Amino acid sequence: MVSIATAEPRQRGARIDVEQVSHWFAQRAVAGAKAGQALQVIDGLDLSIAPGEFVALLGPSGCGKSTLLRLVAGLEPASRGTLRQDGAPIAEPDPSRIVVFQDPTLYPWRTVWDNVALGLQARGLLRRERHRVDEALALVGLAPFARAFPHELSGGMAQRVALARALVNDPRLLVLDEPLGKLDSLTRLAMQTELVQLWQRAGFSALLVTHDVEEALFMAQRVVVFTERPARVREVLVNDLPYPRHRGDARLAELRRRALALLGLGDSW
């Protein structure tokens, strides 16, 4: 097992291939839907993530971005098409693919250390791999708070715990569903930089859903812009700026204008 604290950047990430994926929801689960019909949320989607790549998804609210994350994570099967990790079909959840949600969902009666240890404990690895909990906490800068409880943490610190809980499982793909969406603006900016640094150090592949155009462009190497539901790829924006990035870079401003235009907000800029 490669230590999460010493893994070589970009060497451990998973390759993900989404091939002609379409997905429908049963109408009874959708408010205002006509009985007996299914609601299509994804339509013939093709997408690949290279090992160690950081990809972000942008699109209108409700277009199917978070649904695609669930399919990639193996939380539910696609209605049609194939999803693969390193050539093998994605058929169920796997510790190599970890989801970080907007809400850190920490257990209030467990310390920070015990919350981070949950994955190892559930897999029966904690006794042998206790050091990985300490490594994960050090990686997110929370080693001094190992014995604190969730109510003693700020929002940013709680989300760092959620990231540590993911990293302790040594993931090859981190699936990020608006993980910074509930943070205040200054904490969110700081966490964007910290998350990019974690990705660079640990070497996992990353797939991020966000409604924040600047966040997507600041963090990711490629930004996939979706259409209205059902989601199709409208355009892929490539950001080849090196890290660390400067938010005032002219290239970022150019990409932001293009992304907003694709989302129907071009007149605002």
Q: What is the residue-averaged pLDDT?
A: 89
Order of helices and strands: EEEHEEEHHHHEHEHEEH
The span between the termini is 49 Å
Q: What's the arrangement of strands in the largest beta sheet?
A: 6-7-8-3-9-10
Helix content: 25-40%
CATH topology of the largest domain: Rossmann fold
Query: How many domains would you count in the coordinates?
Result: 2
Percentage of residues in DSSP E strands: 15-25%
Can you describe this structure?
With about 270 residues, this protein is an alpha/beta fold. It has 2 domains: about 15-95 and about 170-265, 3-Layer(aba) Sandwich (Rossmann fold), CATH 3.40.50; about 110-170, no CATH class. The chain has 8 helices and 10 strands. It has helices at about 65-75, 110-115, 120, 125-140, 155-165, 185-200, 215-220, 250-260, and strands spanning about 15-25, 40-50, 55-60, 80-85, 90, 95-100, 175, 205-210, 220-225, 235-240. The strands form 2 sheets. It has a 6-stranded mixed beta sheet with strand order 6-7-8-3-9-10, with helices on both faces. It is globular, with a radius of gyration of 19 Å. The N and C termini lie far apart (about 50 Å). The relative contact order is 0.19.
